[in-house]
Write a structure and sequence with these properties.
heterotrimer, A alpha/beta (about 425), B alpha+beta (about 120), C alpha+beta (about 475), A: alpha/beta, FAD/NAD(P)-binding domain, Immunoglobulin-like, 3 domains, 7 helices, 28 strands, about 35% strand, globular, C: about 475 residues, D-Amino Acid Oxidase, Chain A, domain 2, Arc Repressor Mutant, subunit A, 5-stranded antiparallel sheet
């Protein structure tokens, strides 16, 4: 019986096992690939680590820091091992694992941390019109093929979505000799960092079409052309604004979704706003002893915050398992209010001792200046001024235990202006 | 002739204009002016890419320049990387090309791969 | 020289080939694509209809009801999946209720078993998500659901086991008739000879027929149908097929539970010129949504994992056109096979052999015909004992590569080395389901490409996505100049 099992050995899982470590506990880290590090291994560009390590690293370098940090800790690691299912039966998690050494086997654990990362939203999910030829794929898949396997997936490329993966791939494919004809973004603003707009698009004269989406795809067997159209304020295509590009590849950078649906027997509450688990401030899901962190919980724009969050999740999981008495939770909700898309955690467990907790949230609109407010019931209990707020950038508020005035639900809102 | 650019020094993202006399406009702070001038006189970039390797886990290993290199040399360096073939084991920081194009900057491996 | 050449490895051609393989004589099945069933057979509603809808005394009515019964036989012999879901036809007002009454009478005439009306309360108990606007329900217990593509694949594989020959990537480019023998030219160079030609080329049937016939008695007028696919986790949202009452445009937009747990929503019905253009349109999908809301409430569109379009090979002839050519009786048209073509297919095969070919030539049954085709059991579906045994013989069963649909490397390898190999990314997807889940291959595609490359000993950049010459890994980087 393991005390803590961490599923997923990327940035989140490494940080979680690092902080869950205790010489008295039996820990296991499970990773489906043959090496640790997760998605960072294919993110070969730099820009990682500025918050956490105070220096600029590439993705693989950031991953290697995480791997080094746990090198001297004694815990078990299973590589090339996939979790097929997780079930909780009378307080014990039964984890069905699969690998080529054991075949299918079941292990048991007192607590489980989900650090399984996220997957890329597909064309099916966004219901892209047109034909379905070869040549359309998520940008992250193209990134893997290029950076790990050494293959370009196309020679003439268009990219839908201006998230950072899309922008990074525009530059990468251009540098490797492909022609990148443009990037279309349905929103009137880019979802990527300004630095990536400048250094991935402007540097290579790659046009960015804001308020544009794909309205047709041509080609029966192989992608031949895509058509983009400008959209109105309701995101409806405007007739007469069509532009057609002859391309053999369309990369989609249209969103990431926490990858937590593969365990059929594990039924925990999932947020329709984050697509991840609903958690309290200890990153504990609706199932006691089941924790979630990293992109498996909600999609982050900076890995540094994945590490920070996962370290906390690991610590809370350790505390949970070390505690001998059964716990009773008393939860108050933390809801997104005006101009806030989501807040995490969704619950505060007020039976827990805590001085302060970090709320992660995203605003629904951009603003140069504004104020985030936390209300408890009708009472304003916390306010924080913020600059350069954007939906693509996660905001963080520190809520102190001493801020609370009652047991009423909390609501976080954003006010544009000073 | 005026050139337009977006400043990336801070999140404000000023839309700068710079003319042939290196006069910068639309900047909200001094750092914008410095950025615009450098972008005209000596723009530099970090370059990250891959090189071939005989690892059983992956056919390429990631590399980077140890510092920002002149922007116009990016494609030239990309071409030079075509000629590199590494063998495992490699360690993070191993130099792949020393003093690339006489810039004083090295190309190094950014990932350790065991044999 | 062959006795029979069948053109087209869709579900009709596949089952006709298998039917012919029961008899002595040589059979060749030609397919222009690189796999079986790449057109209408893979992109349809997957329903084995009861036969409530076709006009009485039509070939469609006769073969639909017979075909439905024959699926029970195919299930045993070919080990195809068959869900006995039943179906509801839903009326919303007096006028639609009148149509429902007409369907009820028609079902009786067509000898559809067990058809009956249900009270709204009874219907709602069985289908809690039924739309609130439904006023009357006709229940069709004999309606079933299958995986049509697997039916075609298993039929062709079984035919091959029984001596038939299958050739893919063969486009018929001309057909001539000389001295009682058909000369079928493929890919513009090779000439094949046969005593009989069966034209089961789906949407292309009129073009293929025109290679021989002066006058083709029908024209194919392709009809597009668009669908949404919901993730398998919606299983149970509906438990049986829901039909609206039919209109002159066809059966309308349906909700269909699928054998792997997914739910299909569609299709619309739009005539188009192209026989290949499987475009999804915004208007088409919006229409499907609107119509589907009359069947069920609160359909979880946030669970859509894919949209697709199928082409129906509707012809200008009102019924199926299954007949010997007037000028060349040994040339047999199997054309205009739109709905209920999937249901009718096993009966079409019987009809072509028993009612058409046997009238022209005596056929002798093989004594050693083996009607059975073993299914490849997926690791996920095995009992614990079977899993142990399978893993002992093939450790790669231990590596799960598609976690959405629980597909192991061992499963994929079995399908790569099958009689008709799954040698493309989509070929593997259709056989082993790797890539059919929520991430649509985001995780496993790379593993599938590498497995195909390794198992078939071909370079990575020769592994195709689907059709010929569609490699995903197009160009290797960092190659010395």
């Amino acid at each position: 019986m393991y005390d803590v099992v961490v599923i997923g050995g990327g940035a989140a899982g490494l940080a979680a096992i690092h902080s869950a470590y205790d010489p008295t506990l039996k820990l296991l880290l499970i990773e489906r690939e043959k090496t640790l590090g997760g998605i960072l291994k294919q993110c070969i560009h730099n820009g990682f680590g500025l918050h956490h390590y105070k220096e600029e690293l590439t993705g693989p370098e950031y991953a290697e820091r995480g791997i080094l940090s746990v090198k001297d800790l004694s815990f078990e690691t299973m590589l090339d091992t996939t979790v097929a299912d997780v079930e909780k039966k009378s307080d014990i998690f039964h984890i069905t694992i699969m690998n080529t050494e054991l075949g299918e086997a079941v292990i048991q654990a007192k607590t489980v941390i989900l650090s399984t990362g996220c997957y890329e939203r597909t064309r099916g999910a966004i219901q892209l019109p047109g034909t379905r030829p070869k040549g359309i794929m998520p940008a992250g898949s193209a990134q893997r093929y290029l950076n790990i396997d050494g293959y370009l997936v196309g020679k003439k490329v268009f990219i839908l979505g201006s998230g950072d993966i899309g922008l990074i791939m525009a530059r990468r494919m251009r540098l490797e000799g492909a022609e990148v004809l443009g990037v279309a973004e349905i929103m009137p603003y880019s979802n990527g960092l300004t630095r990536n707009i400048v250094q991935c698009l402007h540097d290579f004269d790659i046009p960015l079409y804001l308020s544009h989406t794909i309205t047709d795809i041509k080609g029966i067997e192989t992608l031949e052309a895509i058509t983009i159209s400008e959209v109105d304020t309701h995101f409806q295509p405007i007739a007469g604004t069509e532009k057609t590009f002859e391309v053999d590849t369309l990369l989609l950078s249209v969103g990431l979704i926490p990858d937590i649906k593969m365990f059929d027997s594990l039924k925990f509450d999932v947020s329709s706003l984050t697509n991840g688990a609903i958690v309290d401030q200890r990153y504990q899901t609706s199932i006691p002893g089941l924790f979630a962190c990293g992109n498996a919980l909600h999609v982050h724009d900076l890995v540094d915050f994945v590490t920070e969050e996962s370290e906390k999740a690991g610590r809370f999981a350790k505390d949970y398992v070390l505690k001998t008495k059964a716990e009773k939770r008393q939860l108050i909700t933390i809801d997104p209010g005006d101009k806030v898309r989501y807040v995490l955690p969704q619950y505060l467990d007020i039976t827990q001792n805590f001085d302060e907790t970090v709320l992660s949230l995203r605003a629904t609109e951009s603003a140069l200046r504004g104020t985030f407010n936390i209300h408890q019931g009708e009472t304003l209990i916390h306010s924080k001024k913020a600059r350069f707020v954007a939906p693509a950038e996660m905001e963080r508020l520190v809520l102190k235990r001493s801020d609370l005035v009652s047991e009423a639900p909390l609501k976080v809102s954003f006010e544009v202006g000073t | 002739m005026k050139k337009e650019m977006i400043c990336i020094v801070c999140p404000v993202g000023c839309h700068l204009e710079i003319d042939e006399n290196l006069k910068v406009q639309n900047n909200k702070c001094k750092r914008g002016e410095v950025y615009a001038k450098k972008e005209i006189l000596n723009p530099t970039r970090m370059l990250t890419s891959t090189v071939r390797i005989n690892s059983k886990h992956q056919a390429r290993v990631s590399v980077k320049t140890t510092d920002a290199i002149p922007k116009q040399s990016m494609f030239k360096i990309m071409e030079m990387l075509d000629d590199v073939a590494l063998e495992v084991p490699v360690n993070l920081g191993d130099v792949v090309i020393k003093n690339v194009l006489d810039t004083g900057i090295d190309i190094v491996v950014t990932m350790s791969l065991k044999a | 020289m062959y006795d029979f050449i069948v053109i087209g490895a869709g579900i009709s051609g596949a089952l006709i080939t298998r039917e012919l393989s029961k008899y002595q004589g040589s059979v060749l099945l030609l397919e222009k694509e690189n796999d079986v069933g790449n057109h209408a057979t893979i992109a349809n509603s997957a329903i084995v209809h009861s036969g409530h809808d076709p006009e009485p005394n039509s070939l469609k009515a006769q073969l639909c009801v017979r075909g439905n019964a024959l699926y029970e036989v195919l299930e045993k012999e070919l080990n195809i999946p068959l869900l006995r879901t039943g179906a509801f036809v839903l009326a919303h007002d007096k006028e639609e209720e009148a149509t429902l009454d007409m369907l009820y009478r028609r079902s009786k005439t067509n000898k559809v078993p067990d058809v009956h009306y249900l009270s709204i309360e009874e219907a709602r108990t069985l289908e809690p998500n039924l739309s609130d606007s439904v006023t009357k329900v006709l229940s069709l217990p004999s309606t079933k659901v299958t995986y049509p593509w697997e039916v075609a694949l298993s039929a062709v594989e079984n035919a091959i086991m029984n001596g038939a020959e299958f050739r893919k990537n063969q486009t018929v480019t001309s057909i001539d008739y000389k001295d009682g023998i058909f000369v079928v030219k493929v890919n513009k160079d090779e000439c094949l000879h046969a005593r009989f030609v069966i034209n089961a080329s789906g949407a292309f049937a009129d073009q293929v027929a025109a290679m021989l016939e002066q006058e083709v008695p029908y024209k194919i007028t392709p009809r597009r149908g668009e669908y949404f696919v919901l993730d398998r986790r919606v299983k149970g949202f509906i438990n049986r097929t829901l039909y609206p009452v039919p209109t002159d445009k066809g059966k309308g937009v349906l909700l269909v539970p699928q054998v792997h747990g997914n739910i299909l929503i569609g299709p619309n019905s739009v005539f188009q010129d192209s026989k290949q253009d499987i475009t999804n349109t915004k208007d088409g999908l919006n229409y499907v949504k609107e119509e589907a809301s009359r069947l069920a409430k609160d359909i979880p569109y946030n669970q859509v994992i894919r949209t697709f379009t199928g082409i129906r090979a509707t012809s200008t002839y009102k019924d199926f056109y299954i007949s010997s050519s007037k000028a060349y009786p040994q040339f047999i048209h199997v054309a205009g096979i739109d709905s209920p073509g999937l249901t009718a297919a096993p009966a079409i095969a019987e009809y072509v052999v028993n009612d058409l070919i046997k009238k022209l030539t005596p056929l002798v049954r093989k004594t050693n015909f083996n009607p059975y085709r073993e299914k490849i059991k997926m690791f996920h579906d095995m009992t614990p004992e079977e899993k142990k045994e399978a893993f002992k013989n093939e450790p790669r069963y231990g590596r799960l590569i598609c976690k959405c649909e629980k597909v192991t490397e061992g499963d994929v390898i079995q399908h790569i080395h099958r009689i008709i190999p799954g040698d493309t990314v989509k070929g593997v997807k259709k056989r082993a389901r790797a890539g059919s889940g929520i991430c649509q291959g985001g995780y496993c595609e790379v593993d599938v490409i590498k497995l195909i490359s390794k198992e078939l000993n071909i370079p990575l950049k020769s592994v195709n996505y689907y059709h010929q010459d569609t490699p995903i890994l197009l160009k290797e980087t960092k190659v010395k100049k």
